[in-house]
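Hey, can you fold this?
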Amino acid sequence: MNGVFKQSPEDFEVEELPAYLPSGEGEHLFLWVEKRGVSTPDAAKRLTRQLGLSERDISWAGLKDKLAVTRQFFSVTSKVEGLVGSFEDPDVKILSAKKHKNKLKTGHLGGNRFTLHVRSVTDPAAFRAAYDGLVANGVPNFFGEQRFGADNAAQGKQLLLRGGKGGGNRFERKLLLSSYQSLLFNRALERRIAAGTLARALLGDVLKKHETGGEFVCADPGVDQPRVEAFEVSPTGPMFGPKMRRAEGEVGALEQGLLDEEKIGLEVFDAGGGETLGTRRLFRVRLGEPSLSLEGDVAKLAFTLPSGSYATVVLGELTR
């Protein structure tokens, strides 16, 4: 392995890039929070405990790594504004608080900025070449291992097969169901890479525009391939559910094969309700604002990623 990472939380810093900033007026309060070595749900529990709130009174845009120093927004009711100054926790700090008219919802973020240290780099030249390759060609958009836990995906499948009954609280249920969807997406991406078509437009592909998120089915690979090469659009994979746009032709048959291997049909995802509506996920993403410096056997790298993409996947590509 060409380097190791996460020797301390300070080796892995994440800052949320909000989709919008709080306006200063409204019935909700946006808390800009820094946490060290604490998961997002655990930080939320510590906040609600001291502020006298319930689980449903707090929300956040995205999950952040536990073994890291992270900064992100949480939203709570503005009625607790007077208690914010008395909040104390050794690992969770409220850096600022500002009102907003709307509650923060899952996915309401532009992305994340990462600053990482990789230590014990044995071949700096190879490390830089690998990083330059990711900058030029994009990163395979796998879901990271932290998405799955010990058996989250298996539990998610069983939850669907039970008709969506059970699954714990709201957060736990969503985690299990999305883990199963994510597992199937990762399998689709693995096969795309193995076939050498990660950056190829195939007949029947559902292509997505990086700038706007617009989707369309590839009817002529010869026309769409230059747009793929320019990183204007990229192929997508399935996050199965009733509202997912389906691929066509051979690509659609390959995606159906994933379900056949699981011995389920697409209709099984109806049982997840609003938590498994389905969507398309980019097979590759770009590294934004990339930088890399190497000092001895330590690499310091920084970049941004879109919401839902994993820096641990980038690190895996660089150190394997």
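Oh, and this one too while you're at it.
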Amino acid sequence: MLLLSREDIKNVFSMKDAIEADKKAFALVTEGKCDTPLRTRIAAPAHNGCFLFMPSYAEEMGAAALKAVNIFPDNAGSGLPTCPAQVLLIDGKTGIITSVLDGTYITQLRTGASTGLAFDLLARKECKIGALIGTGGQAACQLEAMLAVRKLKEVRVCGRNFDRTVKFVKQMNEEYQAYGAKILAVKTSDEAIDDADLLVTVTSSTDPVFDGTKVKKGCTISCVGAYQHHMQELDPAVLPRAAKIYFDSKDAVLSEAGDILIPLEKGIITQDDFTGDIGAVAEGRLAGREDDDEIIVYETVGVGAQDLVTAKMVYEKAVLAGVGTQWG
């Protein structure tokens, strides 16, 4: 069994690799070639958290995976990961576990890559300004994803705690200086989204985190954080303005994402307003952006296929590079 740490994964796998992995994963889901049951959720209300278990199996990849990912937002205050996790990669022919991977980083990487793929397929080709709302454990990979697919001049970052936002921005400017974008800390979401071409929300908020009436024409929005029915980052005011609404998985989104479920219940939108899944766009079976003025919304909650494909591709690269620790 090969144990792969965060650093091991970083040594062999880039954000662009992760975007390609997600492209493959969503195609498998769209084609019905990956068995990805909806994740099992067990609440831990006393600690404002929950445990999530995500299985997947793809016969054509000869592999299965199980991710245990636990969402504990209060960990941020203690400097601990808000989404601690591990991924088990399993040989699809023998059932033997071949690798255990740092699931926290796999989750951050493949979730960021989902946004990156959506922006690559749906955003205007000429994008200059990005906006990131949220500075938690998922935020760094979300930031890198937008930088990886569009040549941005500036990204504005807004978080709940401005001092923490400033610290995050300083670190991101150091880590991602090769992309050539200026990363700035701002105090309000209005400042962040002003004239933004790309907007990512990655928070645990139960209330909208930006003003949907102030989103400019042509903006592409990726909403990442609303993984429960009561959670809501997306301002419903932007939905009637949106030309298209895409999902990573319609079934997964409709099982848990408050960003979409709450507006549906209030009659702000109907299912007739849904455009389709990103996998169909990636395969060329569904149109993406058709006009530079379209506001496009992408809602992602994550599916097990992403963990499976990402873990398998990381494992294969690690074996070739001789990276990781053998155990057992």
